[in-house]
């Protein structure tokens, strides 16, 4: 009985934030019926930003918002797998894999160079590079402890990366249409040049369903590289300190860097490939996944602190902007060179 009560007590703090994000998403769905080309994900994002910065929200909503950004996002991605088949994933081909690998390596190297040039403090440059290369805040939070980054440095890097996620969500679809990119080309671009998984998926689906599916696949391929990146950086920093690798690279620490939800996404795609999921079920799953993405974008907006972003100063924002622009150009150039259409 005591255990049951404790579980109920633990779940209660999640309700306010989750309910708020859900309410924003529902309202965004209704408003989107009257806004033409402005999609529900963008409406939910902007509503969340406005609400959290112009209304004094209670701290009680924060645990639920974090829950949405973590668990609900991963659930949505797993459900999105039900709308795909392994054939559709493999059809992206070796060119897309090369695109991902090249962009990840370039982003890491450029992040370190630009950070040193701008004289950013401590591990901030490494974290910004890792966040840009792999998966934004997730990569930063996973790698931060491996390189002895302070809480302030981690927050600094996350906020910098997150600032340009918001810009990308708004600007990339406009640029894609201006450049007349095909859905697959745009999805590949978003999947390699945008950072956080939630924003990548949303950016793709703003452009269209095919672009959204492509962006999701490319992004998850990129996310898989988090484990080798964490191992490499952890090894480098442990060697620099002169300590043993075991001091930093414990199995428990590295296991946290593994994107387990990717396996769920692939598993759903496998079930759909062999016909184990009836059409009505896959339709329901993909529809639910689409709505959960709107809920996630509401939580993304609720997590944007405009004042905190302003306090960062110009140097980290300058590095983040420069890195984001360079990677956008490199990614788009590679998509053209590799004939990804």
Q: What's the story with the biggest beta sheet?
A: none
Strand content: under 5%
Task: Give the ordered list of helices and strands.
Answer: HHHHHHHHHHHHHHHHHH
Indicate the mean pLDDT: 80
Q: Low-confidence spans: pLDDT under 50, at least 5 residues?
A: 1-9
Rg, Cα atoms, Å: 20 Å
Distance between the termini: 58 Å
Shape: globular
* Range of helix content: over 70%
Structural class: mainly alpha
Query: How many domain regions?
Result: 1
Number of helices: 18
- The tally of beta strands, per DSSP, is 0
Supply the key terms.
18 helices, single chain, 341 residues, mainly alpha
Description:
The chain is mostly helical. The chain has one domain. 78% of the residues lie in helices and 0% in strands. It has helices at residues 2-11, 14-31, 40-54, 62-80, 86-90, 93-118, 124-133, 137-143, 151-178, 183-193, 197-207, 209-223, 226-241, 251-257, 261-273, 279-302, 306-311, 314-337. Helix 2 crosses helix 16, helix 7 runs parallel beside helix 9 (151-178) and helix 11 packs across helix 16. It is globular.
